[in-house]
Specification:
single chain, mainly alpha, Rhomboid-like fold
Length: 235
C-alpha cells in the first residue's frame, strides 16, 4: 500500500510531462540510431529504423497507417535535430506545463503535433519526423494567451516579440534550408494558436472544464490507437 501511495503522490506532485516527453524522444532516438552508430555514424538515425518506429511516410499513411501522424512526433532524424527540438521544448515546456496544468499542456502538445504531421503529409508528401510541429504548437498557445492578454510579461519567460521572432526566424530557415519541414511548423503554430484561444491557464477559473475533458479523452484514444497500431506493424 505504501508503494501505491508513493506512486500516486509522485504522479500528483512530481511527475512532469515535459521531462517524460524529452526522455521518450531521447530513448527512441538511441533506439533508431543504433544501426547507424554500429556502422560508425553517430550523428544520424537509421532511416529503416525510423520507418519501423513510426515515421510519417506519406505513402504508408495513405495506405491506412494513420498512427504515424502521432508516432512521428517522438522520432528525430539526427542528433542535432533532436538537440534543438528538446532544447526548445525544455526552454518553454516547463513554464507552460506549470501555468496551464499538465492536462492542457499534454493535450496541446499531442494535438498540435498531430496537426503538424497532417499538414506535412498533405503539403510535402515525403518523409517526416520530429517534435517541431508540437513545439510550434506550444508557441502558438503562448501567442494566443498574449493576444487575449492572459499572460503578463513578468510571468512569461519570453515576451510576445520574442515569440514572433522565434517563429519568423524558424520559418525563414525552413524555406531556405533543405529538409526542414515548414508545413509541420505552420500546422502546429496555427492549431496551437486556435487551441490557445479556447484554453486558459490552470487557475483562471475558466468555465470550460468540459472542453478540456473531451480533448483529453480524444487525445488518450488517439495515443492508445497509435501505440496499438504500431505494435501490430512490428510483430
Amino acid at each position: 500500500m505504501d508503494i501505491i501511495k508513493q506512486i500516486k503522490l509522485y504522479f500528483k506532485t512530481d511527475f512532469r510531462v515535459t521531462s517524460t516527453i524529452i526522455y521518450v524522444c531521447i530513448a527512441l532516438y538511441v533506439l533508431s540510431a543504433l544501426p547507424s552508430i554500429l556502422s560508425g555514424n553517430i550523428y544520424d538515425a537509421d532511416s529503416l529504423s525510423l520507418i519501423k518506429l513510426g515515421a510519417n511516410i506519406s505513402t504508408l499513411v495513405k495506405s491506412g497507417e494513420y498512427f504515424r501522424l502521432l508516432t512521428a512526433i517522438f522520432l528525430h532524424g539526427g542528433i542535432i535535430h533532436l538537440f534543438f527540438n528538446m532544447y526548445a521544448l525544455y526552454s518553454i515546456g516547463n513554464f507552460i506545463e506549470t501555468y496551464f496544468g499538465r492536462s492542457k499542456y499534454f493535450i496541446v502538445f499531442m494535438l498540435t503535433g498531430i496537426v503538424g504531421s497532417l499538414t506535412s503529409y498533405i503539403f510535402t508528401r515525403g518523409f517526416s519526423v520530429g517534435a517541431s510541429g508540437a513545439v510550434f504548437g506550444l508557441l502558438g498557445l503562448l501567442l494566443a494567451q498574449k493576444l487575449k492578454r492572459k499572460v503578463y510579461y513578468a510571468e512569461l519567460p519570453i515576451d510576445t516579440r520574442s515569440i514572433v521572432m522565434i517563429v519568423v526566424i524558424n520559418l525563414i530557415l525552413g524555406f531556405t534550408i533543405p529538409n526542414v519541414d515548414n508545413a509541420a511548423h505552420i500546422g502546429g503554430l496555427i492549431s496551437g494558436t486556435l487551441l490557445g484561444l479556447f484554453l486558459n491557464h490552470e487557475n483562471s477559473g475558466e468555465q470550460r472544464p468540459l472542453l478540456t475533458k473531451i480533448l483529453l479523452i480524444v487525445t488518450t484514444i488517439l495515443i492508445v490507437y497509435s501505440l496499438f497500431s504500431l505494435v501490430l506493424t512490428l510483430f
